[in-house]
Amino acid sequence: MALHRREVISELLRDRPDDLLVVAGLGTASSDVASVEDHPGNFYVGGVMGQSPAIALGLALTQPERRVLLVTGDGDMLMGLGTLASIADQGPRNLGIVVMDNESYGETGGQKTATRGRVDLAAIAAGCGFGQTAVATTAKQAQAVYEMALSAPGPVFGVIKVAMESVPRVMGRPRDGGYLKDRFRENLLGYTQEPL
User: Fold this and answer.
1) Which of 93, 118, 169, 185 is the most exposed place for a label (fewest CB within 10 A)?
2) Are strands 104-105 and 156-161 parallel, antiparallel or unpaired?
3) Is the pTM of this model over 0.85?
């Protein structure tokens, strides 16, 4: 029986450390993260498919004392595969990646992604040089992915296979890019504008 994405995300972020920075990938991943809590340490990515891994890498490199967690979907990750090589090469020890893999492009009608075929995202990450990778298809395996993503020396990469299901959008989550940038910056640095 496939895992349900909202339950998985709820467990992943259940005991969220105060200083955790979460990059939430395009579309449903952002709604999933917001469904747990609209936290000022969440950076919701919108309108740039495939760029969330690069955003998480930049954040991890500039904030080495903070844990950075990327939560994204298989479609977004497939579009950002090249960044996995850069992440492994740079080796940020504070970066964990969790891919919610429903083997489909949920935002555009459920067309199948390459992970429904022969593509193995965890094997690609391992081939790039990630120290730890894992694939979870059960709740027990998912728990191991949570622990790895939140605390193991990075970069680490976990794939959690979830059901292809329609989940409600989180309507109250902020979507204004400028507001989100300022809120995230203030949470991270204590100010919204560059000092003069």
Assistant:
1) 118
2) unpaired
3) yes
The residue ranges of every structural domain in the chain are 5-189
User: What backbone torsions phi and psi does residue 141 show, to the nearest 5 degrees?
Assistant: -65, -40
Cα separation, 73 vs 108, in Å, equals 13
Tokens of 84: 């996995």
Cis peptide before 174 (omega within 30 of 0): no
Residue 102: closest CA among 94, 90, 92, 113: 113
Nearest alpha carbon to residue 97 among 71, 126, 65: 71
Strands 68-73 and 42-44: unpaired
- Percentage of residues of the chain with pLDDT beyond 90: 62
pLDDT digits (tens, 9 = 90+) for 59-73: 999 999 999 999 999
Residue 124 pairs in a beta bridge with: none
Count CB atoms within 10 A of the CB of residue 64.
11
DSSP for residue 162: B
**Which pLDDT score, from 0 to 100, does residue 195 have?**
59
CATH 3.40.50.850 fits 5-189, yes or no: no
Q: Which amino acid is at 164?
A: M
| pLDDT top residue among 39 and 111 | 39
Distance CA 180, CA 35 (A): 16
